[in-house]
Prior knowledge:
The protein has 3 domains: 7-57, 434 Repressor (Amino-terminal Domain), CATH 1.10.260.40; 65-165 and 298-325, 3-Layer(aba) Sandwich (Rossmann fold); 166-294, Rossmann fold. Helix content is 43%, strand content 18%. The protein has 12 helices and 12 strands. A 6-stranded parallel sheet has the order 2-1-3-4-5-11, sandwiched between helices. A 6-stranded mixed sheet has the order 7-6-8-9-10-12, sandwiched between helices. The protein is an alpha/beta fold. This is Transcriptional regulator, LacI family. Keywords: DNA-binding, Transcription, Transcription regulation. It holds the Pfam family LacI. GO terms for molecular function: DNA-binding transcription factor activity; transcription cis-regulatory region binding.
Amino acid sequence: MSQRVTIGDVAKQAGVSVTTVSRIINGHYEKMRPATRERVEAVIDQLHFAPTASAQRLRQDQGHVIGVLVGDIANHFSSLLAKGIDDVLKQAGYDILLVNTNNDQATEKRALQRLYQQQVDGLIIQPDARYFQQFAGMVKHKVPLVIVDREIDDLPSDVTAITSANRDACFRLGKHLAERDYQNILAISAHFADASGQIPRLAGLAAAATEYGLTFRNLETRGHDRRWLADNFSHELAQLSGRTAVISLMGPVLFDLLAICQQHHLTFPDDFGLISFDDWEWSQFVGHGIYLLKQDMELMGNLAAQRLLQQIEQRRLDGSTTLLPVEAVDRPSL
């Protein structure tokens, strides 16, 4: 059996350092003479060198790899968030290690430990844990860190966070409903993570209901099936007098609501007003269109990546909180 060609063999024959070879195989040619690059690439072809993962990560001081933790990669939000992050980091010469925590804090904790051991250059986290103790070790070890999408109750002032203005958007929505002569708000939620983005949304709706004299109810669907939701949804509607606005606080809940409407021959806005908190363009084609509270998750990912790169370049943590606006798209379902 022939001996495997190593990155050291390439460096020796090309007359350069191992670090130079590593930078070339990873596509980082900054401050490198074209002749050097051509010489090394010729040796790589001549020796039929296939770099290992460890060779690809070898650098003077950075691996050019960012760890990205998302709560549920199957969720449309998380996928768009990861895409927004990758679009920026790829342009800057970084790769991402994407980890799906499945909205589980134990999985999240293990993932953080693994990524720290792999010496990633920074972390972008859509958190499952609601309190910062889960992530404190990263700050202690000065790992650049950005929290995205979901809010942490006790976030330190030196940690960057980028999320949507969920509470304010829902408070404004409550005011808008009162102005349109709705008397009731019935929210449908599904808290799959402790740090769910639905928490500030519910807080905003509850505050608006108190301020403008509306009745506010919430049905939490986690742990229940569609039949349970159908029974309880019908019961709540029957108990509420006056006009009711039903608000789906996350995309997957909307599918259940639409199925219940079809099964029980309910229509909107005749039987109730319907609002969805998602950014799926197909909602405009349901009925005459569903009133939408729309987040820009790709933009959130872009900004998170940019802030992380700033921390890496400046070699220090930079605490700031950015609240991105939530767009209200007025459609006939209300």
